[in-house]
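Usage

Read records sequentially. Each one opens with the input sequence:
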Amino acid sequence: MLAAAIGEPAASSLGRTAALLLQDQPGIVGLFAEDPGGGGWNPAGEVHLPVPGNLAHLSLAGNELIVTSGDGSVHGQHLKDGTSRIHATWPISDGGVREFHAACMLPAETNKGNSILRLALKQVVQSDGGIAWGPELFS
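and closes with the structure output:
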């Protein structure tokens, strides 16, 4: 397994949704819906990724699957109406080494023109010359 996510029930459904990205199909996220009566998990569809193999993480927010790529770009796929949106990353001028790990959509009333919040880890040189990873947020 390359990545997985589980989301709480959306307002329009009773059970949770799970998203799985398997190693033998790195370009397809399998979706599964929980049976609210306790009957297990049922296939609920699939999402084809725009760039297979460059994935960092999956997350689910309501009815949206959020795919964060290693370069910081974010692909949002609405699971009910099928619409999608892609938020490309931008060049970061400090030249630091980063690994992007997650993203979330900001509420419309707080986003001030930026609808995505990204979490990255950046290499930081310590005072003793060692290297550590420190968190950074980008909006």
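Summary fields computed downstream for this record:
- The radius of gyration is 17 Å.
- Residues 3-138 form a domain with the Lipocalin fold (CATH 2.40.128).
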